[in-house]
Structures are given as structure tokens and as C-alpha cells.
Amino acid sequence: MPEPTSSTGDNKSLPPGMVLGPDGKPCKICTAFRNWKPADTPKRGQDGSKPAPGIAATMAAMAAGGGAAVSQPDSDVRPEYCPPDVEQLGRATWTFLHTTAAYYPEKPTQNQRANMLTLLRSLPVLYPCSHCASHLDTNIRENPPDVSGRIALSRWLCERHNDVNVRLGKPEFDCSIKKTDERWKDGPSDGSCD
Ligand SMILES: Cc1cc2nc3c(=O)[nH]c(=O)nc-3n(C[C@H](O)[C@H](O)[C@H](O)COP(=O)(O)OP(=O)(O)OC[C@H]3O[C@@H](n4cnc5c(N)ncnc54)[C@H](O)[C@@H]3O)c2cc1C
Predict the structure, then answer these.
(1) Minimal-distance CA residue to ligand 1 atom 39
(2) Is the domain of 91 the same as that of 25?
(3) Containing domain of residue 29, as a range?
(4) Residues 27, 130: contact at Cβ < 8 Å?
(5) Exposed, middle or buried, 166 (CB in 10 Å: 0-12/13-18/19+)?
(6) Sign (positive/negative) of CA torsion 167, 168, 170, 173?
(7) Smallest CA separation from ligand 1 atom 8, residue
(8) Which intervals carry biased composition (Polar residues) (predicted)?
(9) Do 92 and 145 have their domain in common?
(10) Which of 99, 110, 119, 161 is the most exposed place for a label (fewest CB within 10 A)?
(11) What proportions of the chain, in percent to the nearest 5, are helix, strand and coil?
(12) Among 74, 28, 52, 3, which Cα is nearest to 14's?
């Protein structure tokens, strides 16, 4: 699969950060929403007739006592009925995967191991963000999934997530079972999530 192209400021026809898909066209599910349209492009409402104010802009205006009359849409925030961008899809997928790993059995049956392997090996084939899928494919080939039990699986998944974090310039997560369980199963010891 060809590497995606992220446009730069040199390309006047595409907003910076727009990612092109394998077909050379702008790839919506590969791109963060804030990079999908130039900031000064008004977004349209659900009926396609007029620009819709973003949630943050609406809430800010209401907090300021101005009701919902907002003149300028918030270019980074979309209404909840909009399709996901690469970041929303990523957060939802990581939530599903880490939570599933956290609740995976300590001693899985052969059938559970086989199903987990199928799930993980399906991701590079089916994940809609093509360049994410391509990187994941390479990553899984180099680091085969450890489905022997929930501690090993949680660590393996945490490390794969960290590989993406590093590639995106984000901080790495502590992959000890204490920290992954705290984040995805038990919540912090201060009880703030109980
Ligand atoms: C398989 C896959 C591949 C992806 N590839 C790309 C890509 O190539 N390019 C791209 O732009 N985006 C990619 N994404 C999306 C990207 O990883 C993020 O989901 C997205 O940028 C949103 O990031 P975020 O900072 O909100 O937190 P996320 O990275 O989505 O993390 C969600 C939460 O998980 C926790 N967390 C963070 N790291 C770890 C870890 N290592 N282990 C356990 N928990 C952790 C944190 O509490 C964090 O708030 C990919 C997503 C997936 C699922």
C-alpha cells in the first residue's frame, strides 16, 4: 500500500495536514477534522442549508449569556451526529481494544485465544484509515500478538499503542499492568471514577 501524503503549506489547493489516501485523493477518515477544511470555510448545517455553529462555540456563547446566537462556527468541533475523523475513530478503537484486553481471561481457552488473534489480525485488513492500517500491519508482523493471557495481552496492546504514540510525537504510556488496569478497568485508587 503506498504511503499517504500529508499536504504541506506549499500545496495551495489542499489544507495543511490533509492526508491523501492510496488513490491519491483526500482521505477523510485518515485526516483530523481540524485539517479537513480551511479554518475560514463555513461548515453547513445537517440540512446543508446554512453553517452550523460548533458545540464549543455554542456553549461558550450560552455561558456568556448570549444564547445560541453564534456568528462564527468553531472550526475544530463538530456536532455529535457527524461521522468520526481519524482521532475519534482512534480513541474509540483504542477504548474497545484496551478494555477488551483488560477483561480478557487470565487463562484463556484455545477458542478465546483463536478469536482474539482473529480480531487483532483483522484490524490491518479492515481498519478504515488506510495509512493507520498499513503501519499496524507492519507493526503486528514485527511484533506478533501475545494472546496467552490478559496481562501479556494488555502489555502487547499498550506497546502497539505506544508505537503509534511515538510516531505521532505523543508521550508513551506506562505499560505495567497496574497502569493499564487503572486506566481501562479499575480506575485510580483515589476513587474518583468509582
Ligand atoms: C490501530 C490504530 C492505528 C492508528 N494509526 C494512526 C496513524 O497512523 N496516524 C494517526 O494520525 N492516527 C492514528 N491512530 C489514531 C491515534 O492513535 C489516536 O487515537 C488519535 O490521534 C487520538 O489521540 P488521543 O491523544 O486522543 O489519545 P489516544 O491515542 O486515542 O488514546 C486514548 C487514551 O488511551 C490512553 N493511552 C494512551 N496511550 C496508551 C497506551 N500505550 N496504552 C494504553 N492506554 C493508552 C490515554 O489515556 C489516552 O487518553 C491510530 C489508531 C489506531 C487504533
Answers:
(1) 173
(2) no
(3) 1-36
(4) yes
(5) exposed
(6) negative
(7) 132
(8) 1-11
(9) yes
(10) 110
(11) 45, 5, 50
(12) 28
Question: Closest Cα partner for 90 from 143, 28, 161?
Answer: 161
Between CA 84 and CA 95 the distance in angstroms is 15
Please say whether the dihedral angle defined by the alpha carbons of residues 108, 114, 116 and 117, taken in this order, is positive or negative: positive
Computed over every residue of the chain, the mean pLDDT equals 81
| 35 grid coordinates | 485539517
Does residue 62 sit in the same domain as residue 132?
Answer: no
Banded pLDDT at 37 (limits 50, 70, 90): confident
| Ligand 1 atom with minimal separation from the 19 CA | 11
- Residues 74-118: pLDDT tens digits? 556 788 899 999 999 999 999 999 999 999 999 999 999 999 999
Grid look-up 445560541 returns 68
Residues 110 and 124 reside in one and the same domain: yes
| DSSP conformational letter for 119 | H
Query: In this predicted model, which residue has the larger pLDDT, 97 or 48?
Result: 97
d(CA 72, CA 150): 48
